[in-house]
Design a protein that fits this description.
Length: 72
């Protein structure tokens, strides 16, 4: 297994990570743990969600626990 395939994009705002949208609400749920975070490998979707929530894009690898701000 290629460990690089475990790296995904997540959204961070301040010290919190986006978990998802609360059903039947306009609010979003946030967590202090990157392991709880919503994640995707699609850069366009991640950029859209970051703009929508006011967050920043971060790379997170769940296997090794590595978190790094995404550089453009």
């Amino acid at each position: 297994m290629d460990i690089r395939l475990s790296t995904a994009l997540i959204i961070k705002r301040g010290s919190l990570f986006l978990v998802g949208k609360i059903p039947y609400s306009t609010e979003y749920r946030w967590s202090v743990s990157p392991y709880d975070a919503w994640h995707t490998r699609d850069r366009d979707v991640a950029k859209y969600m970051a703009r929508k929530t006011g967050g920043d894009l971060w790379l997170f690898n769940r296997v090794v626990g590595q978190l790094r701000e995404m550089a453009f």
